[in-house]
Amino acid sequence: MQLQNPHKQRPKISEKAWISETAVIIGNVSIKDNVYVAHNAILRADEPGSSIIINDGCNVQDNVIVHALSHSEVFIDSNTSLAHGCIVHGPCEIGKGCFVGFGSVVFDCKIGDDSLVMHNSTVRQVIIPPGKVIPDGAAINKQNEVEYLDNITSELIEFKNSVIRTNIELAHGYRSLEIETEN
């Protein structure tokens, strides 16, 4: 479902993206090429001056919530995965090639390229440099805590890359099915 917000802004969605029929996308939301938005995801930019940008090759998995507060932006850069049930709340910027795990919450923060927020973690009011790993269940809400984060490993790089590949394949596959059904 795609809805206009009270400010008469409608989502702008690439024809090369795939959006589940049960996803809800409201207002000033821009979704680029090869993006996969799964079932029951909610992307909401309905408050005054809010916006959401989802760049190429991202995936927004089942039950993810992305919401931008008034006069804020959520920016998700290319090839980033938002895993099942996570919450991304603006203001927020997530870099290229990142992974935000199941049930995690990110709010009022900047996460550098190639970083992983593992499952059930919270990241708030900090800047995470590129290539860092926030461990399962961590709460990172003071900038001095960031210096203790581990660097990404080759195994975690392959993990996040495999999630991206799988979800781009899903987007292509679902689009192909829709084209076949239309013909």
Question: How do you describe this structure in short?
Answer:
The chain has 183 residues and is of the alpha/beta class. It has one helix spanning 154-182; strands at residues 2-3, 12-13, 18-19, 24-27, 29-31, 36-37, 42-45, 51-54, 59-60, 65-68, 73-76, 81-82, 87-94, 99-100, 105-111, 116-117, 122-124, 127-128, 132-134, 139-140, 150-151. The chain has one domain: 3 Solenoid (UDP N-Acetylglucosamine Acyltransferase, domain 1), CATH 2.160.10.10.
Task: Provide the residue-averaged pLDDT.
Answer: 95
Q: Which architecture per CATH?
A: 3 Solenoid
Structural class designation: alpha/beta
| CATH fourth-tier homologous superfamily | Hexapeptide repeat proteins
For the report, how would you describe the main beta sheet?
13 strands, parallel
Compute the separation of the termini in Å: 23 Å
What is the N-to-C succession of helices and strands? EEEEEEEEEEEEEEEEEEEEEH
Per DSSP, the total helix count is 1
Low-confidence stretches: none
CATH fold name? UDP N-Acetylglucosamine Acyltransferase, domain 1
- The percentage of residues in β strands lies in 35-45%
Determine Rg (CA atoms, Å). Answer: 16 Å
Q: What is the global morphology? A: globular
